[in-house]
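## Example record

The block below lists the input lines for one assembly entry, exactly as stored, with component labels intact.
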Amino acid sequence: MNVMEPKAVASSALALYGVELPSRLLLGTAGYPSPQVLARAVEASGAGIVTASLRRERARGRNGDRFLELVRALGVRVLPNTAGCRTVKEAVTTAQMARELFATDWVKLEVIANDDTLQPEVIGLVEAAGVLSREGFKVLPYTTEDLSIAERLIAAGCQVLMPWGAPIGSGRGLANPYALKSLRAYFPGVPLIIDAGIGAPSHAAAAMEMGYDGVLINTAVAKAGDPARMAEAFAKAIAAGRAAYEAGLMEARDMAQPSTPVAGTPFFDLGTGPEVPGDD
Amino acid sequence: MGPAPGPRLELSGRILFNWRAARFAAVGICEERSLTTHSVDGREIVVNGDRLATRARTLAELLAELGFAGKRIATARNGDFVAEGARITTAIERGDSIEIVSPRHGG
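Predicted structure tokens for the full assembly:
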């Protein structure tokens, strides 16, 4: 097999639906020990997008107002999700409610199939993506690495895809790197963001080295001993992985190849080596 | 997500509403306008998964009755989104299921 020469890629910022973003890290806002810790983590991450969701409100609750104020103060774009939705109708209605509440037509579309894996219900996902795209939503679908579903999501109007790395909250990293590489190769012009399953900065760096355009992280930061420090670690890993991709990574080889030039080295032509017993 | 089954609700209605009234009193929501009278009679509906009785004719009236007036919320009736501007013309009918949601953190 021929070994491909590394190719450099022009450096660029992440742009989604025509909006240029300051970072390739997208940060979830759930599960932090306190709103203050969340705020520090968002700042440390440098994220330009944070995710949010909807809850059933009680008559006297003020949580919703407080959360919105917190996010506004951080000056980041909010990406509402449709977490917990199991049907097309639930997801569409939730997206519509989120659009009104968060005053954005961006939505992280989730249609969930299974409680144990929180696997995307991809058939419903495609249908909901079509409905919402026709209503003017900018849909960022949480999907699997399946190529044919990816094609259908794009046909439905999605200009960004968010395949899972591994099940939500599992922290297992990139469970199927071969399929993720295929997806990247198959859709070179579509922004692809790894959403879910990232547990360590090294996982995020690996995704970026593959040429993924961004990574969405929540649990790995929120549940860290020091979420702000972990957010910073992820930011560095994602920046490093992206820089490596842009610089052009070498291909792995099966055999060693000397890095120091061979020609002209002392004793180069003598062909001496360790004596092997019986080798006369 | 159709209306709750009628006959069964009829049978259990009084006990259910008395329980609701007691619960409202216990958590001090009685001071909210007219909820106590509504727990005695009115149309049975479901709000955020909880059954209650209301005399509200529209979604806007229901929200006022429940203390949501002026709050940052979004609504759905029987699974369909109801935009803020449409709440005043959206009728509340017996058996309706209403969702009232607000922003929160998420992944």
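The mean pLDDT of chain A is 93. Strands of chain A lie at 15-16, 19-20, 25-27, 49-56, 77-80, 106-109, 138-143, 162-163, 193-195, 214-217.
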